[in-house]
Amino acid sequence: MHAKDPSFVSTEETQAFHILLAPSAAQSDKTRAELAELHRFEDTRSDTQKAAAMADDKEESIFIFKQQIGEWFNAQTLPQTAAFGTRVKNDEGINTAPAKKGFARVRPYNLDTSLHPVCVTKTIDDSYPSGHATTGYLMALTLIDMLPEKRDAILARADDYANNRLICGVHFRSDIEASKLVAYTIHAVMANKPQYQQELAVARAELQSHMADTAQSK
Fold first, then answer.
1. Are 186 and 74 in contact (CB under 8 A)?
2. Residue 1: its pLDDT value, please?
3. Which distant-in-sequence residues (6+ apart) come within 8 Å of 123 by Cβ?
4. pLDDT the model gives residue 69
5. Positive or negative CA dihedral for 20, 25, 29, 33?
């Protein structure tokens, strides 16, 4: 759930419903190809892949990048970073909502009931774009603002996080592609907000201080 009011970016500033192409019709060749891809994922996903996708399904925060930063990268150690990440996450929900509602795309497993998703499912038609994938890319861009030297590793993890929605069997590939565009749009607007920059500076200082302490203790 997200707050009623945006932390940094309003829906009028991103216009998510208007900047995205409409998803393919349910009975289109493209949708059938995307469903076939999900069946291939289902047929080949390993237990390890399923476990990773299910774990990502439950985690929508800046701390999905723990493996790229360190075990100490968590809300308990970094409360200011956690609070900042929560405010950024709030704007994902607000800014994807118009597109989710406007396009009202049926979830793949509701369209093709022979699919067997391994993550949380919904009956509401809101597949496009993916909220999880938008969160992953938006958090990645935010974390890169804090740790630009880890850019490549962070972006690779964001791609993996988004791809896990396909491993889960709960989104079409085009949902993921749309999410990336929305996330980059939100961040482009957000990065120019003085309030974002102020809160970013606080979180960045906290994060870099812990990184320095960790380096000294080795």
1. no
2. 41
3. 110
4. 95
5. positive
- Residue 3: the pLDDT is 54
Tell me the average confidence (pLDDT) per consecutive run of 10 residues in the chain, 218 residues long: 80 98 98 98 98 98 97 97 98 98 98 98 98 98 97 98 98 98 98 98 96 78
Neighbours of 54 (CB within 10 A): 15
Residue 6 lies in a domain: no
| CATH number, residue 75 | 1.20.144.10
Whole-angstrom Cα distance, residue 97 to residue 181?
14
Place of tokens 């993916």: 130
Give me the domain span that covers residue 30: 26-217
How large is the greatest C-alpha to C-alpha distance in the chain, in angstroms?
59
pTM of the model: 0.96
Q: CA of 159: how far to CAs of 16, 71, 164, in Å? A: 20, 21, 9
Distances (CA, A) of 5 to 2, 90, 188, 209: 8, 9, 19, 31
CB hemisphere CA count around 82 (13 angstroms): 10
3-state secondary structure of 192: coil
In a domain, 11, yes or no: no
How far is residue 23 CA from its own chain's centroid? 19
Q: Is 137:160 a contact under the CB 8 Å cutoff?
A: no
- 169 assigned to some structural domain: yes
- As a residue count, the chain comes to 218
**Spatial distance between the Cα atoms of 117 and 130, rounded to a whole number of angstroms:** 15
Q: Which two tokens stand for residue 214?
A: 């960790």
> How many domains are contained in the chain?
1
